Amino acid sequence: MRRLTIPNAGTQARQNVSSELSELRGMSYEHLRLTRWPFPIVPEPAFCTFLADRQQLRGDIDVLLRSLSRQDASSIHLMWSWFGAGKTHTLFYFANCAAALSKHGQRRLYAVYSEFPKSVRSFVDLYRSFARGIHPEDLVDAYLEISTSAASDQLKRELRTASPDLANAINVLVTGTESTQTVAMRWLQGEALPASEFRTIGVSHKIATSEEASRIFSALVSLLNLAARSQGNGLSRVVWLLDEFQRIEKLPPSTRDEIGVGLHSTFNACPTGLSIIVSFSGRPQPQLPAWFSKELRDRIGRTKVLVLPPMTADQGAEFIRDVLSHWRSLEGWNAGPYFPFTEESCRFIIEEIQRTEELKPRAIMHAFNAVLQEAEPLLESGDMQTIEPEFASRILAEYVAPPALDGDQ
Fold it and tell me: Which of 280, 296, 235, 275 shows the shortest CA–CA distance to 64?
């Protein structure tokens, strides 16, 4: 069986985009032989087009995407990560790979990223986080595709069965003015607006109950599926990337149970065309955390968990090589693999990290970012040619490592 190869934009295209963004920001990193600053602490979705090191994880994601693009049964998957091991970057990478597959003529995968809200009262809050991640143009394109097909009547029936308000809101998204389209999207995202604003688009009330949120969620999945069948693609799939799920542990038991029921009911209402990747932090154990509801455990069944553990020293060095190589400028193709660092300074920084904490991408990015920030003006002026271990040692001695996060002892 042929193994799926995840397409990407290509090195040249990445460098062009990075150079343009650097110019827009007034930045130039020619002296570093890089197209952008290589150690951002907070992941930027548009730039998460690669995984440094993590060969096993890349392969697991490759296999999962292949499966999701070739069959339509709904599924739940798990991503279990140590704190700071790169799960959010990995989810953005997954979303970018899914988008690339769709652009290259594969089955359409709609990746929707959202965080488990910090303040949650019911499943409605999870629905809101999901709806804010949907691209309105995807819904509009799907509705227009179906409106001219034999599935038009079926779609209208399904939308009105799920919610008459939903049918009106989708219609306004397609045919309304800019102001009414904004109101329709805000309603779809679960916002509380004055009744007078709702009435301008034919909506009677806000999305207020978990049951209604679940019905609307499943209707949106059905809308995208119907559009794919209308186009002759056979299927589409919504992939909900639900990050920071460990936050559910802090909620009252009654709220946890209500959210578990909401997720379970929504999944049951979407037998095809939906995958949920539940991502959470904490030290992986043989069994799932107790805060997974019985219903969710049952629906998850047996699945291969995507695990992001700490790295070894060699993996940390490969991580840095991959990061620098990915952002290497065309003029810097012949620079050393660790430039502007040396291999010795790279190894030294990694050893320094390991003296106080586990070797994880976030810790690596913090340490290398601190050293490069101090070295960058010296490299630009020519007062420094490469970053040596002595310089890195002096800089790191001036920086205080943060304490370990709760649950990361």
Answer: 275
55-308 CATH, one of 3.40.50.300, 3.40.1280.10, 3.40.1390.30, 3.90.1150.10: 3.40.50.300
Q: Which two tokens stand for residue 390?
A: 């002595």
- Amino acid making up residue 178: E
Give the pTM. 0.83
Cβ proximity of 201 and 180 under 8 Å? yes
CB-based contacts of 154: which residues, under 8 Å, 6+ apart? 226
Strand order in the sheet with 274-281: 108-115, 236-243, 274-281, 75-81, 306-308
Per-residue pLDDT of the chain (409 residues; tens, 9 = 90+): 223 333 333 334 444 444 444 443 445 688 999 989 999 888 888 888 888 878 888 889 999 998 888 888 999 999 999 888 889 999 999 999 998 888 776 578 899 999 999 989 999 999 999 999 999 999 998 888 888 777 778 777 877 888 888 888 998 999 999 999 999 999 999 998 888 888 889 988 889 999 999 999 999 998 888 888 777 666 789 999 999 999 999 999 999 999 999 999 999 999 999 999 999 998 878 788 888 888 788 888 777 788 888 999 999 999 999 999 989 876 666 788 999 999 999 999 999 999 999 999 999 999 999 999 999 999 999 999 999 999 999 999 987 665 554 444 3
Question: Would you kindly state where each structural domain of the chain is located, as residue ranges?
Answer: 11-48+311-397, 55-308
Backbone φ/ψ region at 284: left (φ over 0), alpha (ψ -120 to 50), beta: beta
Cα pseudo-dihedral 141, 145, 148, 154, rounded to 10: -110
Distance CA 271, CA 218 (A): 10
Q: Positive or negative, the Cα torsion across 52, 57, 59, 64? A: negative
Query: Where in 21-146 does DSSP place strands (E)?
Result: 75-81, 108-115
Helices (H), 231-342: 253-268, 294-300, 313-326
As a three-state string, the secondary structure of 281-293 is ECCCCCCCCCCCC
The helix (H) or strand (E) run that includes residue 333 is none
